[in-house]
TrEMBL record:
Family: Belongs to the DegT/DnrJ/EryC1 family.
Alphabetic keyword roster: Pyridoxal phosphate
The protein's name in its UniProt record: dTDP-4-amino-4,6-dideoxy-D-glucose transaminase
PANTHER family assigned: PROTEIN RV3402C, TRANSAMINASE
Top-rank lineage group of the source organism: Bacteria
Record-annotated membrane-spanning stretches: none
Alphabetical list of SUPFAM superfamilies matching this protein: PLP-dependent transferases
InterPro entries named among the record's database cross-references: DegT/StrS_aminotransferase, PyrdxlP-dep_Trfase, PyrdxlP-dep_Trfase_major
Length: 368
């Protein structure tokens, strides 16, 4: 193998197509603070994603932190332990106590049947994650939120372009937060966004991501510097021209993996989210007890052959030092999430991954 194969690699359009954007930015001398490329990308993303308003950010974590501030969330927030650590970190940054509940065994999204038992008088919101880009049970979650007067903020870092039964999954909840990190389906090198339901909310979020400024001399809130630069926005505009092509290629790779692995005993491919729904952001498999190797042993075998999958998500957020002392972090309450964290392995999937490499990966998995 000439070079290592990682679980994902950023899709980069031809450099020659990016140069005119850079020249325009250089000529304008506007590098940040909501410049022309920033505004164009916000408008283009609203059209593509089927959302009304979007606020761009320097990264998805800052967007999560700001979303909680925008809705004035306090106290306790019910969330999932099966996610990237930024989900819970955004709560701690706001002085909020995370309350972990278990996940559904089929989707690995937050299990709605576990939510009500976790609600206390201090609960003010629910923060689910569309894990691997598969939509949560948005209707069940919203029903609970309405019954208990709770806010819902979706960590939609994986869910760019994902559709559910009624259109864009990003339109559910009070706010949805995207990540445009280099490893995501759509990236701006680093970046993120908050989907806003109305113009008033977007205005508040735009103020919060700019230190709380309203005009030149007035500050109305303890905001943060979360603004996306013109360079990142320009890359996003260029990426958007190729996104459908990239998604189509991911779909082909997803289908090939499923075909090649369907008869491998002990290897379970998570349920396909379905046509017109998935963005094929990840390809997770579960290494079950009847497979000859443990998940970690298979992980090492692939690495020895130049393939670098990812144990995504391992360990659980609830097992990190800053969270494991919480009552809700008890493994007895998180049996499904704990099992998944010990079984799941995400295989490489990105537009430039060649068919021959997918076949080599699956042959390595099957050769036991």
């Amino acid at each position: 193998m000439t070079k290592p194969i990682y679980v994902t690699q950023p899709f980069l359009p031809p450099l020659k197509e990016f140069l005119p954007y850079l020249e325009e930015i250089w000529a304008s001398k506007i590098l940040t603070n909501g410049g022309p490329f920033h505004q164009k990308l916000e408008s283009a993303l609203c059209d593509y994603l089927g959302v009304k308003h979007i606020a761009l950010f320097a990264n998805g974590t800052l967007a999560l932190v700001t979303a909680l501030q925008a809705l004035r969330v306090t106290g306790e927030v019910i969330t999932t332990p099966y996610s990237f650590v930024a989900t819970a970190h955004s709560l701690l940054w706001n002085g909020i106590k995370p309350v972990f509940v278990d996940v559904d065994p089929n989707t690995l999204n937050m299990d709605p049947t576990k939510i009500e038992a976790a609600i206390t008088p201090q609960t003010t919101a629910i923060m689910p994650v569309h894990c691997y880009g598969h939509p949560c049970d948005v209707e069940a979650i919203q029903k609970i939120a309405d019954n208990y007067n709770l806010k819902v903020i979706y960590d939609a870092a994986h869910a760019f372009g994902v559709q559910c039964h009624c259109g864009s999954v990003l339109n559910h909840g009070d706010l949805s937060v995207l990540s445009f990190h280099a490893t995501k389906v759509f990236n701006t090198f680093e970046g993120g966004a908050i989907i806003c339901p109305d113009e008033k909310t977007k205005i508040r979020i735009d103020q919060l991501k700019n230190f709380g400024h309203v005009g030149e001399v007035t500050v109305v809130a303890p905001g943060i510097n979360g603004k996306m630069s013109e360079f990142n926005a320009a890359l996003g505009l260029l990426q958007l021209q190729y996104i459908d092509q990239a998604l189509a290629r991911r779909k082909e790779i997803n289908a090939l993996y499923r075909e090649q692995l369907q008869h491998v005993k002990g290897i379970h491919c998570l349920n396909d989210a379905g046509e017109h729904v998935a963005n094929y952001a990840y390809f997770p498999i579960q290494v079950q007890p009847d497979y000859p190797l443990s998940r970690d042993a298979l992980n090492e075998k692939l690495k020895e052959n130049g393939i670098h999958p990812r144990r995504y998500f391992y360990p659980l957020i609830s097992e990190f030092p800053m969270y494991r002392g919480l009552p809700s972090a008890n493994k007895a309450n998180l049996a499904v999430a704990t099992s998944a964290s010990l079984q799941v392995l995400c295989l490489p999937i990105y537009p430039d991954l060649e068919k021959s490499m997918v076949q080599e990966i699956t042959q390595l998995i099957a050769s036991q």
